[in-house]
Amino acid sequence: MDAASAVPLHPVAAEALTAALADGWADPARLYSAGRQAQQLRDATHAAFAEALGVRVDEVSLWPSGTAAAQAAVLGGLAGRARRGDTLVHSAIEHSAVLHAAAKGKSAEVGVDQLGRLDLDAWDRAVSAPGVALASLITASHEVGTVQPVAAAAGYCAEAGVPLYVDAAQSVGRVPVPPGWSLLSASAHKWGGPPGVGVLVVRKGVRWISPYPQDDLYRPGVPGALDLPAAVAAAASLRAVLGEAQAEAVRLSALVDRIRERVAATVPDVEVVGDPVERLPHLVTFSCLYVDGEALLHALDRQGFAVSSGSSCTASTLRPSHVLEAMGVLSHGNVRVSLHRGTTATEVDRFLSVLPGIVAGIRAEAGL
Amino acid sequence: MIELDCLGQKCPLPVIALAKRIRDVEVGETVTVLADDPAAANDIPAWCRMKKQEYLGSPRPHAFAVRRLS
């Protein structure tokens, strides 16, 4: 139940990976037949991504991870607009990959409300300010699931002449991304592809300059060898996932509604956070008052449930989630549940049946 | 008015201490929690909102004032 971190490999991805390991091992830049075979496979993979994402083939590049793609989008987008400005406008709830890239230079942060929705008036003011090179908005929060007003935010960016980068890691393969963006990134292991494949799309006419040293190839792009078998598997699984996306969204959204309703009804002093309607189909977050997040995670793990938490005690930084902080909602006792195609209603029901007892047990130990 | 020294304690301990000890003051009086866990600045106001108590702000670094309303 931690699909927002990584989803088990889709069967189509596993099949494609095995086949591509045999056919796609060679360096696609080489002139012998195995190299040409790899080149054909690479070109077909780019074409498959372009078709799945509804963009041109030469707008797609493949990176060693979603994080690498996101950081290339931010740093390359800023570099491409260096003559126009030096400031990155970003929401307060971006993924840490984007925030770390933002910290390399000047940035302006735009807040969210208690449901985790972007403050569009503040966004409008921020992107209209002089010196803005690029704007960055996550399509939907990876921590609380709230879907962001991408189309409206893109409209303000267009008025201001500022390109918009969208981190679509939680949306691609699950829900459509509204148009209007200039750069987009996604991550294969969020939709059932293998880990280690990130996708970056830079639309035609958008200036992007690679922030990395280049190699001898004719076109600026990703340095070094592509993990072609993984990329092939990622593209094949994306196509398969998109075919089932609508039906899966309906099924998972009903399970999330059930979790939102049952948790609020059966666990006292709990706050189910994020927008209950404008949300991702597969993700829900709640915080239990007086509960240590780490203890809760371990107790759920002992029952066979893998969930994530935004509580400070579970983070390597020992700080609470910046997303929960930006929303001003409780950060301790936090649990993020995110579902995938392998999650069954029976599993969700078992989770809902053990949760109240686990929370009560931890509270009792704390003397409450 | 009482002051709770929760310095060095990790969340949720400062919030648990606040919930236990707020019953020791009269309605309308304040409890000040001293806490340096980075989550306290977020979680004490959030607790006030959830439990319908009034968050009075942070009078000085690592101090959070709460008025009992009920």
TrEMBL record, chain B:
InterPro entries, alphabetized: TusA-like, TusA-like_sf
Top-level division of the source organism's lineage: Bacteria
Coiled coil: none
Span of domain UPF0033: 4-28
Sequence similarity: Belongs to the sulfur carrier protein TusA family.
Annotated protein name in UniProt: UPF0033 domain-containing protein
UniProt organism field: Paractinoplanes toevensis
